[in-house]
């Protein structure tokens, strides 16, 4: 069992019933981690936990509202008490937001929705788990952003600012937590090609763009304009995102912190 990337690690995944969170949870469990998945919808959490149990892994679920700081703190305390600490945490919580509306027609509320939603949940969850990491139990906090953090494209003001904020949060938090041997690493996937089939809000998010191109969302993602805009002419898959997360959370990436790993298939080349 020692060959497993995350053997005997304890991982908390917020948004663990979603497309990316669920995929990461399954891979973490396969690699030997004891996984605690938290989210709003018990049915989705149970489905992921059932998959993990069927494969011989360990997963526990909890309904937690990531915008409720006290509830998140209590859950993190309970996980740490049960498992003796927390080794890995990922915030895979998504916030539905506008893409495609330019400044003249964009309301302040729609602009702020992803900025406040993504960054508020990232702050709350990171603060909760960091208290249970470090010292004799090195920790890893993984974050998720998007290529919009660096793209100069109209119609994605709130999306772009929130993505850039998450990457800045990653860098600065890594500097703060490094003395306690806690790494903070970001993952920047493009739109994930098979996320709609896994129940994400990708279908709803990209429907206006697909309609404008005269395509279905599936065609847009699998071989349309979004895929063609990458160097590799394809978008990342859930499996690729999850496998990358497992490596970054493992001791094999022990010198990697304060950076964001680019999974944009060449949309961005940094």
From TrEMBL:
Pfam families: adh_short_C2. Keywords: Oxidoreductase. This is NAD(P)-dependent dehydrogenase, short-chain alcohol dehydrogenase family. One of its GO terms (molecular function) is oxidoreductase activity. It comes from the Bacteria. Gene3D superfamilies: NAD(P)-binding Rossmann-like Domain. It comes from Actinacidiphila rubida. Belongs to the short-chain dehydrogenases/reductases (SDR) family.
